[in-house]
Amino acid sequence: MRMIRCGHGSNIELFEYASPDKRHELPRNSDTGGHHFCFYVDDIFKEVAHLESHGVTVLGEPSLNSGAESGEYWCYFLTPWGAQLELVSYPAGRGYEQHTAKPLWDTRDPAD
What kind of fold does domain 29-98 have according to CATH? Predict the structure, then answer.
């Protein structure tokens, strides 16, 4: 078991069950029971380069969304055990935010 502290925010607990009948294939994100963590970063290109410099398998280049999520870049990478994690970045906001009120949890300064 390992605990990961994310700055002054969330703590993530990682653990593995021991079971003689354990399945070893991972569900895809789109499968029932499939899931992944996504981490927001300010500069996705810098963070992808950081992951690659440490030998992390990155699944492609950062992709730019369109439509309601225009302005958002995302990129998946793999943990050492093969689970998918995601980086996401939208420092200038997302497309739908141009037409909706600012969410209560959004603490970004509009002047930035």
Answer: 2,3-Dihydroxybiphenyl 1,2-Dioxygenase; domain 1 (3.10.180)
Q: Which string of b and e fits 68-103 if b means at least 16 CB within 10 Å?
A: ebbbbbbbbbeeeeebbbebbbbeeeeeebeeeeee
* Averages of pLDDT over each 10 residues, the chain, 112 residues: 82 82 79 81 96 96 80 91 89 72 61 58
Confidence (pTM): 0.67
